[in-house]
Amino acid sequence: MKKFLSLVLSIVMILGLVACGQKATTTTASADGTATKLVMCTNAEFPPYEFKDGGEFKGIDVECAKLIGQKIGAEVEILDIAFDSLIPTVMSGKADFAMAGMTVTEDRKENVDFSHTYQKAVQTIVVPSTSGIQSVDDMYGKKIGVQTGTTGDIYCSGDFGEESMMRYSKIVDGFQAMKTGKIDAIVVDDQVAKAIVEQDSSSFKILDTAYAEEEYAIAVKKGNSALLNKINAAIDEMKSNGELKKIVDKYIQ
Ligand code: GLN
Ligand 1 test: best mutation among 86, 120, 150, most atoms within 8 Å of CB? Predict the structure, then answer.
């Protein structure tokens, strides 16, 4: 009986060890930096950082994420969701990190940890080409379009009041609304403004005034320092060896 029990115990222990051993290699969304697959959530409506081109994800963030993945030995899978769902998705562990031209802010830092920054950005004001709006001061009492949950949304709501706000889950829908006269201005990140206005330069103009200056970083679940350290090391390397610049230059002239 004793022998039988110890045999059962050893089997249980072996099974336990096998289970533990497997954990590290099959982990996906709960990655601690040892996973072989990492889930990146993004909002692929934000050219040149992330967009879909014939069903394929492209852009600065997409290419950077793949390169970071290569450096840390993980395959990166993309989860395309609404911008305002990105932080909750990282917090719940359904994605390992968010990379979406996401600005580092003190409020967001309460819910996620940010990597080293990899790009600077400016919140810019876009108006119809015939508009009389010339500066931030002219925007009071006007209808302002933003992408839901972005820093543009947060700053404009504070400065111009809730009644001025028109929110869109895709900023291109805001540009469409501005084209038909439903809104007077859009506040969006500079490179995204350029990419969209370039396609329709007779309809829109970008004002010279910078509304806010910011920096982008990758967000991971709070406390996931194993993954964060690896991402930071990869970003640092890409910054110093020119790999980051090479990717950026492909998309921003
Ligand atoms: N940089 C802005 C923010 O973080 C907008 C990002 C986006 O729309 N993808 O809020």
Answer: 150
